[in-house]
Amino acid sequence: MTPAVPTTPAPATAATAAAMAAAGRLARQLADPHTVWPGGRPDGPRAWPQSLAGGAAGIALLHIERARTGHGDWDTVHTWLTAAVQGDVSAAANANLYFGAPALAYLLHRATTGTAGRYRGVLERLDAATLTLTRNRLTAAHRRINLAERPPMEEFDLIQGLSGLGAHHLSRHPHHEITHDVLAYLVRLTEPLPGPAGLPAWWMDVAPTGAPHVDHPGGHGNFGLAHGIGSALAVLSLALLHGVHVPGTTGAIERICAWTDQWRQGENTAPWWPGYISMQQAADRHVHPALRPRPSWCYGISGSARAQQLAGLALNDPQRVQTAENAILATLRDPRQLDTLPETGLCHGMAGLLHAAWRTATETGNTQITAELPRLTDRLITTLDRSSHTDPELLDGAAGTALALHTLATGHAPPPAWDAFLALA
User: What is the average per-residue pLDDT within 263-273?
Assistant: First the structure.
């Protein structure tokens, strides 16, 4: 099955124009690394230049996308790519889609498609490093499964693990052997392991932080798109939708969906999924409504509903697609849910909801969702205008917000999709 051709009409002209103006304003503010970071580089735990989440690499992605769609210039792109490759590029065991050689390969794949191959030589070297890294990560993951041990979060999640590397390989070279190998691993990840009845194979023996904690003595089951099984669900579904068939993929998607269906909350017209569940909740078979996550990309509706929609499309299950779209629509219409997202960014804020809703609506031509986008756009821009300072980074800051607004305004995200790193496309 191939992805649907976008059929949703663009939002109201006023909202489109406002989004384009806001995206352009943010992009201009982020044009020069020396202005963005007068000290030479940002501060913080994810501020390395080659970090897609918080460094120069992430801001480069904004400028690449604007240049590819005719709204930016390639000189600015080159400036930011130069900033992103400062220092030694990491291809260590902890490199991932969001950091190091894979992150830069992800960027240069997109830059190369818009520059007649200007960066092809560098990209090939980054490809080689990323292939070696991925093979090593796969070897370790299969060794863990052979020992019937529970997975660590960094093995399979989107940000640190093999779901993220799979998203990159699926975008970069969908029919390459490494892509098939990662998908085969994700299938195997869902196959039962020995242990307590009712716990899926992806149940982790750690807390949601990724480390053991006394508050989670039995570990947890994670639904999120950033750190949970939602990432594997989205990548496996995208593979089928793009015609990449690996034995067992359908069964793996069905196993994940059976578990998420078991824990789906709310009415059919306004469903939601937990961000994660504890061992006690699993034993009680109950999630208190107060534990409903914010409708963010990382753990909430923005990510979980899109993953469910992709699964429904991959399985040819119109009811699942409808349920997912109902979840997004109900959230967009619920002021109480919107009030829980005061931030503007992709990961935890309104930009993530806006872009996930745009992707969801565009996929199937859902005009009801599309009709709600101008109101959220206005809310996001108003918040930006009232803010005295916005972090420049991609995942939680201005670069990601600008990308969401730019995509809404243009109504187009040309392949290779910039938002593959979010497992939204």
Answer: 96
The CA angle 409-159-117, to the nearest 5 degrees, is: 60
Q: What is the pLDDT of residues 198-230, one digit of tens each?
A: 899 999 999 999 999 998 999 999 999 999 999
What is the residue-averaged pLDDT of the chain?
A: 94
- When pLDDT is averaged across residues 226-235 and rounded to a whole number, the result is 98
3-state secondary structure the chain: CCCCCCCCCCCCHHHHHHHHHHHHHHHHHCCCHHHHCCCCCCCCCCCCCCECCCCHHHHHHHHHHHHHCCCCCHHHHHHHHHHHCCCCCCCCCCCECCECHHHHHHHHHHHHHHCCCCCHHHHHHHHHHHHHHHHHHHHHHHHHHHCCCCCCHHHHCCCCCHHHHHHHHHHHCCCCHHHHHHHHHHHHHCCCCCCCCCCCCCCECCCCCCCCCCCCCCCEEECCCCCCHHHHHHHHHHHHHCCCCCCCHHHHHHHHHHHHHHHCECCCCCCECCCEEEHHHHHHCCCCHHHCCCCCCCCCHHHHHHHHHHHHHHCCCHHHHHHHHHHHHHHHCCHHHHCCCCCCCCCCCHHHHHHHHHHHHHHHCCHHHHHHHHHHHHHHHHHHHHCCCCCCCCCCCHHHHHHHHHHHHHCCCCCCCHHHHHCCC
Residue 144's identity, in one-letter code, is R
Which residues, listed in sequence order, are joined to residue 51 by a DSSP beta bridge?
99
Q: What radius of gyration, in Å, describes the C-alpha atoms of the chain?
A: 20
Residues 168, 109: Cα–Cα separation, whole Å:
10
pLDDT tens-place string over residues 55-79:
999 999 999 999 999 999 999 999 9
- pLDDT interval class at 337 (50, 70, 90): very high
- How far is the C-alpha of 354 from the C-alpha of 345, rounded, in Å? 10
Instruction: Specify the higher pLDDT residue, 142 or 40.
Output: 142
Average pLDDT over residues 331-357: 97
What pTM was estimated for this model as a whole? 0.95
